[in-house]
Predict the 3D structure of the following.
Amino acid sequence: MPLRTDTSKGLALGAPATLYVGLLVVAPLGMLVAYSFWTQTYVAIDHSLTWENYRSAIGDPLVRHLLFRSVWIAALVTLMTVLLAYPIAYFIAFRTERKALWLLLITIPFWTSYLLRVFAWKLILGFNGLLNSGLQGLGLIHEPMTWLLYNEFAVVLTLAHAWAPFAILPIYVSLQKIDRRLLEAATDLGSGKLERFFRVTLPLTIPGIISSSLIIFIPTVGDYVTPALVGGADGKMIANLIQVQFGPANDWPLGATLSLLAMVTVGIVAVGYVLLLRFLGSRIR
Amino acid sequence: MTAETIIELSGVEKRFGTLTAVRDLDLELVKGEFFSLLGPSGCGKTTALRMIAGFQEPSSGTIRIDGEDVSTVPANRRPTNMVFQSYAIFPHLDVGDNVGFGLHRSGLSRKERRARVSEALELVELGGYERRRANQLSGGQQQRVALARALVMRPKVLLLDEPLSALDKNLREAMQLELRRLQQSIGITFVMVTHDQYEAMTMSDRIGVMFNGQLEQVDTPQTLYASPGTRSVANFIGGMNFLPARLHNEGGGTLDMEIAGFGAMAVGRNPNVADHGRNALVGIRPEQLEIAAHRPEGYDSTVQCRVADIAFYGESIHYFVEVDGVPETMTVAVPNYFHSVDFTRGATAWLGVQAASVIDLGRNRDNETQQGEKT
Ligand SMILES: Nc1ncnc2c1ncn2[C@@H]1O[C@H](COP(=O)(O)OP(=O)(O)O)[C@@H](O)[C@H]1O
Ligand SMILES: [Mg+2]
C-alpha cells in the first residue's frame, strides 16, 4: 500500500515503537491496575471492582513499615553510593589520563552475575566468613561478629557495592562535560580550589547526581534478592512481601496493589528529591 | 624600572617537554596602555598571556606586576583578570551572578555588590540584564558579560585572549572601537592576544609581534607599518612586496641601492634594522605603488609590467603584476575610485614608486640561505 501523506508515513514509522511500548509497558501496567481492583477468592479471581485491597494494604501496619523501610534503605544505599561514587568519578575525570582503563576496572564486578556478587558478600560477612575468620586468625577478635550479616547494614553494603558503577558513570559524564575554562574563570575571579568546587563544579554536576541517585534509588526500593539473601528478618523490604503475594500466598490482587503503592511512593519520593536538589542547586551563587 | 611600568617580563620562557612555546620573553608594559600580542596561530601568544594570568608557570624567568614579583603567586591572587576566548560564562548562573562572582570575597555588602554589578553592566551597555540566563544571550552579549565580570574586579591589568574572534565581521568591527573607547575611559592596562593584524592595529597603543615563541618587534602600529624590523613582521603587518637589492653605499641617512626591476634608488635607512649587507632586501607596500596605462610622471622609478591577475575587493582592486627582473609576482592595491583604473588580465601597464615608499629590510637572509644550501 503506498503511503500518501506525511501523517500516515509518521504513523507507519512510529508503529514499531508504539507496539513495543504498548506490549511491554502499557499492557502489563494495565493488567496490574486491573488486578489491584479485583479480589482473590479461594481459587478464582472475583472480577467485581473494589477498593478493598487498597484499604487493607494501607491499613496494614506491616505494609506501611516495610514500605517505609524500603524507602529508608534505598535512601541510605543511594546516599552511600553517591558519596562514594563522586570522588571516584572526580578522580577519573580530572586526575588521571587513563580514563578508559579506570572505567573498565570499575565495570569488572559486572562480569559476574548479580546473584554471585550477593553470595560473595555472604561469604565475606558470614559467621564463618572471610572477615570473621581473617580477624580471628589475626587474633584481633576472639569470637565471630554476628552483626555483620542478616540486617540492614548488610543490605546497604551489598547494594552500594552492586550499584557503584551505575552511580559513577553519570557523575563522571557530567564532570567530564564541564568546560575547563569555567574552572579557570572561577580561579581567575579569585576562587580557591574548595570554593571553586562548591560554586562551579558541584552545581554543574547536579544533573549527574540526580541521574545517579534515581538509577540507584528506584530499583533498590523494589529489590528483593538482596534483602532475601543477606537481609535476615529485619532486612526485609516491600518487594519480599510482594513476592510472597504472587508466590506462596497466591493473592495476586493484593500483590498488584502493593506493587502500585510502591510505585507511587517511589514516584513521589523521586520527584520530591529532584525538586529539592534543583532548588538547592539554584541557591548556589 | 620606571614608575609607569605595570608589567615586566624578564627572560620568561615556557617549555612543554621538548617544545619551547615561549622563549626568552622580555617585555615592559606601561600603565594604562592597550597592548596587543600579535602573531600567527600557535606562536605562543596564549601561553604568554596565561603566564601573566598565573594559569601557567614559567619554566624560567620572572614576571612582575606593579613592582611585585608574582612568579609564584597563584592565579586567584593576582591583580589580573581575564576575558576568555570562549567567554567561559557560568551556565548555572544568571548574568548578575556571573558578573558578581568574584565580589564574594571583597568584603562588600550585598547592596554594594549589586551596585558594582549594575555599574559594570552599564559600562558594557547591558544595564538591566541582571536576571537573564547565560543561554539567552547572543555571542556579542556573552562577550560583554565576560568583560563586565572581569572589569568589576577592578584589576590592574585586563587580559583578553582573542576576545573578538568568535564574533561575525560587523559586530567584531563595532566591538573593536567600543573596546578601545572603554579602555580609554577606564584607563586600565589591557593586554590582548590576537592573530588578526587589523584588530591589533586599530585597537592598540603598541603591538608585540611574535613568531615561533619569540617576540620579534614591539612598536606602535604606525612604526610597525612604516619600519618593520624583519621580513616576517613586514609580511604579517599589512601586505608587502619583497624585492632583492644590491647595497652599493651605506653612508649617511640613505642607502644607495640597485633594486631588482626598479633600478637605482636612494632608500631611507630603517632604524629597526641593524644588520646590513651587500645582498639587501627591500619592501614596497601594495598601496604605495601607482599603476597606469602610460608611464606616470613624477616618480623616482617607473617600470613596465604585465597584469597577471586581478582581485576585486569592493573598496579596492588588487592587480597581480609581473615585472622583468623581479622574481615574485607583485601586488598593486588601487582604491576603487570611480573605477579610475581598469586593466584586463594580460594587459601591459606601468608602475611608479617613490624612493620614500621603499622600506629597507636589511640583509637578505633568503639569498644567503639559498647560497648556503647550494654550497
Ligand atoms: N598545555 C600545553 N601542553 C603542551 N603544549 C602546549 C600546551 N599549551 C600550548 N602548547 C603548545 O605551545 C604552542 C603555543 O601555543 P599557544 O600559546 O596556544 O599559541 P597561540 O595562542 O599563539 O595560538 C603550540 O605549539 C601549542 O601546541
Ligand atoms: Mg591562542
In short: The radius of gyration of chain B is 25 Å. The interface with chain A takes residues 53, 55, 74-77, 80-82, 84-86, 88, 90-93, 97, 100-102, 104-105, 149-150, 153 of chain B (CB under 8 Å). The first helix of chain B runs from residue 45 to 53. The domain at 5-226 of chain B is CATH 3.40.50.300 (Rossmann fold).
